[in-house]
Amino acid sequence: MRKRTTLVPETPLEQVLTNSFKARLISYKSTHQDYFEEAFQLAISEKQPYAWRAAWLLWSIMDVNDPRIQGYINDMTGVI
Questions:
Q1: CB 3.0–4.6 Å: which of 17, 24, 38, 78 could bond 53 by disulfide?
Q2: pLDDT tens for residues 1-48?
Q3: DSSP character at residue 45
Q4: CB neighbours of 45 closer than 8 A, spacing ≥ 6?
């Protein structure tokens, strides 16, 4: 008998990360600031393909010394 696997549904952010081009991704993040935390957590995770896409998206929308990242510095150094 074949084992049935249960798929965890994608979050709205995960759907956008896997189904959109750069312009839509940046637009989505610009209008959904509450997803910054989720994007950061995906970026430092091993959950592919979302991790590298979330990291790329954050890099694309952040300013130099972006204050939104200050609270995550310890998390980032633990991943590197």
A1: 17
A2: 555 545 567 888 888 888 888 788 778 777 777 788 888 889 889 898
A3: S
A4: 51
Closest CA to 10 of 53, 57, 65: 53
Contact present, 15 and 46 (Cβ < 8 Å): no
Q: Please say whether the beta carbons of 53 and 47 come within 8 A.
A: no
- Give the Cα-Cα-Cα angle 74, 79, 80 (nearest 5 degrees): 100
Indicate if the pLDDT at residue 56 is higher than 80. yes
One-letter amino acid at 29 equals K
* Tokens coding 23: 């312009």
